[in-house]
């Protein structure tokens, strides 16, 4: 079943680098996509980054980032990072089983686009990070 991004996901994705835009559009267009996907974040302001960094430190909640303002790939414009999450039964899923199904698909689409000359650089998934795993976080490294 083909999936489509909603208006909010499209707006968030539009703040990201063109290679990330191409990638995540192609991810949903591919009939092998294992689930629907929502874009949680593209560009993030320094103020938004400060709020996230404070979470679990000086504000209630669990720590969700190790990046201080200016250290995140989200803080560039266009953003060099996208947070993309499985969208299951009408809601964001934080279940690692879904991230582990979606990640190989995203990587395969990236490889195809790279072979076609439509993207460049390296794509990194922080779901594979040894120090702080972030399932939704994908970033470009040049």
Would you give an account of this structure?
Strands 1, 2, 3, 4 and 5 form a five-stranded antiparallel β-sheet that branches. Strand 2 and strand 3 (91-92) form a beta hairpin. The longest helix is centred in the last third of the chain and has 20 residues, at 96-115. The chain has four helices and five strands; from the N terminus they run H-H-E-H-E-E-H-E-E. It has a single domain (7-141), classed as Muramoyl-pentapeptide Carboxypeptidase, domain 2 (2-Layer Sandwich), CATH 3.30.1380.10. The mean pLDDT is 97. It has helices at residues 7-13, 18-29, 46-54, 96-115; strands at 36-41, 81-88, 91-92, 122-125, 137-141. It has 142 residues and is α+β, with helices and mostly antiparallel strands.
Poorly predicted runs of 5 or more residues: none
Determine the mean pLDDT: 97
Our Rg estimate from Cα atoms comes to: 15 Å
Query: Structural class of the helices, strands and pairings?
Result: alpha+beta
- Total domain units: 1
Distance between the termini: 34 Å
| Highest CATH level, the class | Alpha Beta
CATH topology: Muramoyl-pentapeptide Carboxypeptidase, domain 2
């Amino acid at each position: 079943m083909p999936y489509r991004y909603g208006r909010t996901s499209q707006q968030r994705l539009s703040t990201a680098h063109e290679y990330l835009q191409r990638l995540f559009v192609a991810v949903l267009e591919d009939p092998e996509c294992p689930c629907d996907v929502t874009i949680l974040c593209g560009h993030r302001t320094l103020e938004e980054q400060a709020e996230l960094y404070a979470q679990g430190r000086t504000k209630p909640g669990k720590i969700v980032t190790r990046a201080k303002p200016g250290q995140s790939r989200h803080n560039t414009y266009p953003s060099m990072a996208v947070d993309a999450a499985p969208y299951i039964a009408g809601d964001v899923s934080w279940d690692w089983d879904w991230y582990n199904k979606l990640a190989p698909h995203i990587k395969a689409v990236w490889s195809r686009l790279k072979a076609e000359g439509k993207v460049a650089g390296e794509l990194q998934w922080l779901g594979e990070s040894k120090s702080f795993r972030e399932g939704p976080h994908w970033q470009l490294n040049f």
